[in-house]
Amino acid sequence: MKNYFMKVLVLVVTVIMLLSVVPVSAESEFCESGLLFDYTIDLSQLDDEFIEDEDDEFSALQANFSQTGPYRTTSMRSGSHTIFYPQNLGANGVKHPIIAWGNGTGATPSSYTGILNHLASYGFVVVAANTTQAGSGREMIQGIDLMISENRNSRSTFYNKLDTAAIGVSGHSQGGIGAVAASMSDSRIVCSLPIMGTKTRSGSVRTPTFALAGANDRIVTPRMVRSIYTSCTGTAIYAELRGAGHMVPSGRSPSRDILNYTVAWFRLYLMNDTSQYDTFFNSRSGIQADSRWTNVQVKNAPRVPTDPIVTPTPTDPIVTPAPTDPSPERNNWWTRYRFIRLRR
Predict the structure, then answer these.
(1) For residues 229 and 181, what is the distance between their CA atoms, to the nearest angstrom?
(2) Which of 30-44, 58-72, 110-124, 168-182 comes out lowest in average pLDDT?
(3) Quick one: 6 exposed, middle or buried, by C-beta within 10 A (0-12, 13-18, 19+)?
(4) CA 57, CA 42: separation in Å to the nearest integer?
(5) Residue 300: how many other CB atoms lie within 10 Å
(6) CATH architecture designation of domain 73-343
């Protein structure tokens, strides 16, 4: 009888140990194979280190962009890119900013439908390179070229509906590396948001950059992501999402915290939404006061705006980016700052 109970005890302990290492084993297997994100299930569900409370309020933000925005979205494939965009493009004369996206190693845009559709729901046109190797940034720049060409093509869905002076880049993992590389080589890019990427190219980064890390990321560690921040000579922010592993930006339901601040960053720089200034540059609010984030660092912050633009909330029917044609709005402080820094 004693031996029987010992066998049962050993069996229970073995099962508990196996269950406790499933997330690590799954992540390690993908890491060693080199196919970090080419998966058929949502690996973010395996990352049990990161748990979100759906009932929590995002009180630190000036606005809550974690929920789907006001636009219905759709997508289309165009050559070597997939484009995610609002269905009612150009309604009421709106000109939509452009975001070029890069995937993680081995992944395609279908691995990131959650974040790409989310950005499109707030009025951005996201052109995602279909490549599984986005680290050079070349395919992202090609995506920018594609959208500028489409904006000029009278037969295109995007004809005269894009703000070609408001271009940002983003990407996850190797795509984050590509976003940094693209921003260093293409002066048309206004801002960058690399997610869990790093910097592999020599030289400084002058484009305003928000480098986002996962505090528990064992694939691209926070130290690797921080190398982007340290190389920035312009406006830069570094932040670690508490408890987050490498997979939280991927899949159909990415982290709400990442969605929230990604939209806020691009609204600030690409839509001239100066109401988001405090979200990033006020030490007593926004991401600097958000307990979900840690090790937040900010340098070379722009001056405090004196004429904040009143922008629609996520529940309004239309999100209105800044127009591309010269207008009095082009004389506001933020636009002058943006283009002065771009020319440096």
Answers:
(1) 13
(2) 30-44
(3) exposed
(4) 25
(5) 13
(6) 3-Layer(aba) Sandwich (3.40)
